[in-house]
Specification:
The protein is mostly beta strands. 7% of the residues lie in helices and 46% in strands.
Amino acid sequence: MTGLFSRGLFAVLLSMSFPALIFSQASAVKEVANEFIYTEAPFPSCHASTIAETPEGFVAAWFGGTHENNPDVEIWSSRLVNGKWTRPVSVANGIQHSKKRYPTWNPVLYQVPGGPLLLFYKVGRDVPTWWGEMKVSDDNGKTWSEARRLPEDIFGPIKNKPFLTKDGTLICPASTEHDGWRVQMELTRDFGKTWEVVRLSHRFNAIQGSILEYPNGHLQALHRTRESRIAETWSTDGGKTWSQLELTGLPNNNAGTDAVTLQNGWQALIYNHTDARQRTPLNLAVSKDGKNWRAAWVFEKEPGEYSYPAVIQGKDGKVHFTYTWKRQRVKHVVLDLEKVDFEKLKPITGIGWPE
């Protein structure tokens, strides 16, 4: 009886543990950090964060003030120094003169390889009338130049980071909202001094693109839409021309997303996996071809707003995410994906997130 019981118990335990073991190997995502960039600040509301890695470490920025669209909204920034985020400081505002002030919007940081740190942002009474401005930091985000207004009809990257092509062209995924939602790519070969605009054909409303790269040199841009689905467009000539926007199978809740090409060649997309008009849950999907996506991680799933994410991969391979946490704080999460067998992650086949 004792031997039979032992063998039976072992069989039961094996049947219970083996699937868990397979699952843990397939989804060996390691959470390296999960923290708020700040817990106290001189502003009650925040949104639209961005993150970049400089030679001295990581820098984040976002807009904060009384509430979105209020004239007191400024661009705030913090640096990760010795494992801790510095106290938020204002780095840009919309003050025109002593009697006129506009809110600021949607900062985007970009570290020029071997060069300065760029800060793009928008200024204006509202989205349809805003304009683009930029600043430059030569000391890794400690201090910033005076603001420079971008040329008319140039807005800079609207929400997500630019993409640098092999020929040195910086592609800024831009969009406009004064005549419907329209996507355009803004190209600069001298990091913001001169510009070229590539406008995309439209069949529906789309904004706020993220650019991905594939081994064959093709580029894919994923966009937020009002059509309950993420949209995509492709370029086969380094971003000079783009295909007509098409809807993907991934849901979109009319909220911002972001994506990055990982060092292993896979694509990582952070977004709200829902087509409901809510901004939860917040999810991470990965894909090898940009068409078939797999469920990798869930950042947030409780009620509340978890939105407008940003993502980059650090030089050490760790993947850094920032996002809005209930409009009260900016969350910073770091994931180690190096040991993940992406091929074993569950495919995403519809609106439901794989359990």
